[in-house]
Amino acid sequence: MASRIYVPKDATALSLGADEVAAAVAAAGTGRTLVRNGSRGMFWLEPLVEVDTPAGRVGYGPVTTASVAGVLAAIAKDGAHPLCIGLVEEHPYLKSQQRLTFARVGIVDPTSVADYLAHGGYAGLEQALAVAPADIVKTITDSGLRGRGGAAFPTGIKWKTVHDQDAPQKYVTCNADEGDSGTFADRMLMEGDPFTLIEGMTIAAVAVGATQGYIYCRVEYPEAIAALRTALAAAHTAGYLGASVCGSGKRFELDVRVAAGAYICGEETSMLESLEGKRGEVRVRPPLPAIKGLFGCPTIVNNVISLASVPVILAKGAEHYRNFGVGRSMGTLPLQLAGNLRHGGLVERAFGVTLRELLYDYGGGSVSGRPLKAVQVGGPLGAYVPVKHFDTPIDYEAFAAVGALVGHGGIVAFDDSADMAKLARYAFEFCAIESCGKCTPCRIGSTRGANVIDGMLACDHPDEQRQRLDELCETMLHGSLCGLGGMTPFPVQSALKHFPEEFAPRRPH
Amino acid sequence: MLRPLARGAADGARAAFVEQGDSHVSSAEAHEQAAVESAIGRFGQQPGPLLVVLHAIQDALGYIPPAGIARIAAALSLSRAEVHGVVTFYHYFRLHPPGRHIVQVCRAEACQARGGAALEAHAKARLGVDFHQTTADGATTLEAVYCLGNCATGPAVRIDGRLHSAVTPARFDRLLADQESN
Known about the structure:
A: 509 residues, alpha/beta, five-stranded mixed sheet, 41% helix, B: 2 domains, 51% helix, 11% strand
């Protein structure tokens, strides 16, 4: 096989000029095969150009159209260049990670089944087809995998419920409506290693007896949608999807459905409504989607990362996966370092790594050079965590103990210029924009909350406003139909608790 | 109680829509009708097809023509209110043609942590419009988006489908100038 040169096609790499670099590489005629891989998740180095060498893959980054000729000349000679980072796998940012779900992201060609197979792909499905469906479910239960979308519900229990239903039609749906700010793990995986998601969903379908699956992907992710469609067609052609998956006689069809910019559709029942072609209004539970889900049929609804963690669990066993992690948080979590950090990117580690390690050892501290002041973990409904809690380990229970949540593992860092009262107000504003309108605490409470914070800051009876805000948060927490209204108080209350002085009345400028 | 329209009623609505197009209609309207019919023809038979059909129409036209809503409703056995309700529920769908260029600015927290609020203010001032408005010359529509998944290298902006990182106000002006000269 001809030696290869890699230029990522990941959306962040593209936003930093990867297509232009790839075009320059192609035009230069290097004699190597050009592969458009996903990103390794070291975004400050993107576009990161890699080449095969006898010692392994060597990287150069960030490469621009101005520097690409020099880099190619160096590669043709002895490889030495100021942008050279050496062997990519030896980079400290990657070497210390524990990549299970992201094992192939940034490495493989995301369009090629052959490349996927060459890197251990479809070993999980092979195992799944060799055992009884109930044993697949048991393996997932035993692995300790909990929903990576944010709710952390045990995946195996969900699957067992669907498995136990006696129904002519069942569905597997993937929630790829990754709308949380500061999260991009789903996107990176779909763009960089879509076959892993497809394999995970196929295993789920075999386990519960589903014949149709849907990936509900954000419209804001056109690059991911394109990558999925290419991979789905390739998987179909190779016999991994369709009337008889791998000749097993089991049918599984899988399609991408494109969302339409409603954050609420990341809520599972709202996503099902949207898949049915309706307004994404939240359903009242029960019945659970596992019993009456899509079109009234038993349905698995799992996040991208949950499903993409399934192949490695099947391939290497429940024991292997659960041996990573701490307490009841087992396995690994792909963490996303975002916001004001020097070295933002993707870090997959076993549960138990601390925020401080992530922010400083990996993240390199703030990009602005100012001290960090707080991080928001778990998206716009996650709490603001102050510096004094930076030693908290990434662990569902440890985070709950300090009033925060791990969620989808997105970590947004803010330096000391952040205005916590404005961020709290923004939480309400966002909830107002994205509320589906079905329940009153969310629909009205969100707008009212923004007004009350305005009143506090404008010195309009601040003590009364504060009391009103507390009552409003309590009402939203306990009275909302779903997590949008029910969790919007988390960022607000955490900002109030840890940064009360910032809510003091302000003089008009 | 909503009842599915009988086939005859659906065909009637289609006939009315087409007839309107045949008599004294601009080519723009004919273009709209063709996009609506094509989307229905290609995707109308899928399970729960409405969003798929709407996407196909907006992909073709850049918006959902209000005149096509009755036809979509009839073809999918829905009421016009249901179709209108879906179109207006989702932020992505538009009922008006956008400008020649679409500029999406991320307002979410990770971009705010890297100067997003200043960029947002600059973008509005530079274009002289608020979010979800189009400049008077019809050149540019400004839209707010809540996360483009580009959260480590913000502030993030998508212009005509192309994603950009680290967009300072000065860089925003350069990107816009490049776009306008195209």
